[in-house]
Prior knowledge:
The chain is α+β, with helices and mostly antiparallel strands.
Amino acid sequence: MMEEENNRIVETLLGLSGASDEHMEEVLSAIPLFTERNMLSEWDGLPVKSRLPPEVEAGFKTRNQWEEQDLYPKDDARPVRMHPSSRAKRTFDYYCVSDIEEVQQTEEEQVRMTIRVDAEVKRNLQRQAKELDMSVSEYIALLVMHPCDEDGETE
């Protein structure tokens, strides 16, 4: 029962990845599981990581926290905005353990970077990468390594 409830919490949070703060607050405040357990911030109604069940809380970390363990969010990871504690007004993007992977270094030194884009650009990149049967990272590398001119032709 508890595991099922924890899974519901995780899936609900991941399902709201990319949603506006207002939408997250509206959805979560209507779910008794979140309101009765006091998992939402008084500031803005967003989730508070330290108020999640311990098993759920342990599965969410920031990108930097994962990277300290040599683990990285997958290309299609779904970050969830949360307050770290009830006293913190600032929110951070947390990544669920199910969206994390070990990255194998190739002989060439790999550079890891985060690119923030709006939701539409992200969807377009994901769609175009999928059409080419590539990861988003591979597709972005292709675009960077083979830039196109105004007509869409590579040099």
